[in-house]
Amino acid sequence: MSEIYPVPPAFAARAHVDAAAYDRLYRQSVEDGEGFWRGQAAFLEWMRPFTRVSDTNFDPADLRIRWFADGTLNASVNCVDRHLPAKADKPAILWEGDTPGENRMVTWGELADKVNRLANVLKGLGVGKGDVVAVYLPVIPEVMVAMMACVRIGAVHTVVFSGFSSESLANRIEDSQAKVLITADEGHRGGRVVPLKRNADVAVAGQPSIRHVVVVRRSGAPVPVTPGRDLWYDEATVAADPWCEPVEVGAEDPLFILYTSGSTGKPKGLVHTTGGYLVHVGTSWRIIFDWHEGDLFWCTADVGWVTAHSYKIYGPLLNGATSVMFEGVPSWPDSSRWWSIIEKHGVNIFYTAPTALRSLMREGEGPVRKHDLSSLRVLGSVGEPINPEAWRWYHSVIGGGRCPIVDNYWQTETGAVLLVPIPGAIPNKPGMAAQPYFGIRPEVVDADGNTLEGAAEGNMCFRGSWPGQARTILHDHERFIRTYFAPYPGRFFTGDGVKRDADGYYRISGRVDDVINVSGHRLGTVELESAISSHPAVAEAAVVGYPHEVKGQGVFAYVTLKEEVPESEELRREIIEWVRARIGPIASPDIVQWAPALPKNRAGKILRRILTKVAANQFDNFGDTSTVADPAVVDDIVRRRQTHLAQEKA
Ligand code: WTA
Prior knowledge:
Shape: globular
Structural class: alpha/beta
Distance between the termini: 41 Å
CATH architecture of the largest domain: 3-Layer(aba) Sandwich
Bound molecules: 5'-O-[(S)-ethoxy(hydroxy)phosphoryl]adenosine
Largest sheet: 7 strands, mixed
CATH topology of the largest domain: Rossmann fold
Number of domains: 3
CATH superfamily of the largest domain: ANL, N-terminal domain
Radius of gyration: 24 Å
Low-confidence stretches: none
């Protein structure tokens, strides 16, 4: 019998969607998708109403995804202006800095003022409709201001995670041809300083598309300034006009570009457009977290990821919700930091990732028990499969057994939620992202493209379209089609594996492509391999994921050194450092194993299946090894892994 947690009746009674409403609305949303989304679109303020809801075609030869295409609107009007004057003096953001005691409150009125001023600054720097602005900021209110200022003038933001290296930032600037970069002097994380301006200077040096760098004073530390190119955010915005006329954009005009790793070395810039994205994100955020006026929401995701774009920035702003924003990490100064913030502000809806829960779980219940978490009503989880053990801890220790867990499954590509147990409607099963959101048609597909019925295991696909989905990969529409729409015609392929039980609940089993999910961060194995192979001592590298207790998956690198180079501990550390510097600390290999040769087939293709097994300490059942060109190579990597394990034990 599977473990089921029913919806608490009192919760269902006041929820936006209860079980009966879910059944009715879901049926309507798939039988008459046009009608359903037309109704949802009334949530936004349009400048010119749309006449046609959707125009889609999934033939890979002529892929078309268009929603509300002849409507026009402005995102910042919907996110900010609409809540004024009613909420002018109410908090939009309650910000907690990395250092305890450091905090700020930004009201809706102040947010509007900042957005308008920065929009005017950007305009003055020559940024116009369709231009790209790169944002490389810590989790501070200015990141929200920067995103809103861009969309106010029809510019397209591309937010780059502040933990990425200058090289990663440079790649994204180069691909997006950003005209302006908005950054800060320094960031603060876990008591450490992140030299953002220094990284930005290195990144921008070789990028002629960047004409100006706007620098937010976060720490006040002295940083180099390039006259003519750099300007201080505070000085420029004080001098700017406090009103900026919002620019009317088409529903299918781009809203933002967000880069994510794929199965080649080059990150892909997913392009999201305005109307459909805002409709899907704004309406789903309210429903899946069951937010009601007055509720306080906190999403812990970094602004560099899609989770934050949709459900930390756009979702709450579109709904006029007050959010907590926290710059730091859960473990600093100690592992009760998050719980102290929940207690301090009385957070009602808390949304985080399984990896953080697993690491906090290791600290035991002590740090949690020090705080009163009774304000919590709903808990969210996203980014990777949540293992039942972490789920139960979240439910009982953090949620006191009374809060439904909203394990929502989606991707950078999908823009908003696809699978989710809507909290007032769907009973929870630990580790299962449960049921489809409205208008979403999941399919479990086998390797030959057959759609499986009932309890089944296969590839996670979705039929049809939904308004929030990405429209293309910047400069590479061909790759967009090839990756998502060509594998199983008529369906969008996620790259994930899935299992559906007899009750129709979905459990995502993880990536089935060359992507590994490390602490909820997507890393392309090819991207990691090219970073490692660019080290002068390295001849070749192969990277696979392996089960990691806290991170979900860890990075396991098999490295072949050049002929004359000796293996050494020092070199191992150097290679790890090399990857950190090239991609960022999140990409650090957890294990580097020397491999005088890699197992390949006769065509020279690396046999990752074997490498993945060895990394997971499975030393037999390699399947058909007749294709291995040199079986001694396999014996060697197995022996080395076993020796390492024996040494670890000793
Ligand atoms: C994984 C984050 C299981 C999945 C919103 C997906 C999940 C990738 C879940 C997207 C979940 C995300 N359960 N797996 N609830 N949520 N994933 O683009 O492998 O950062 O393909 O989007 O994370 O990661 P991304």
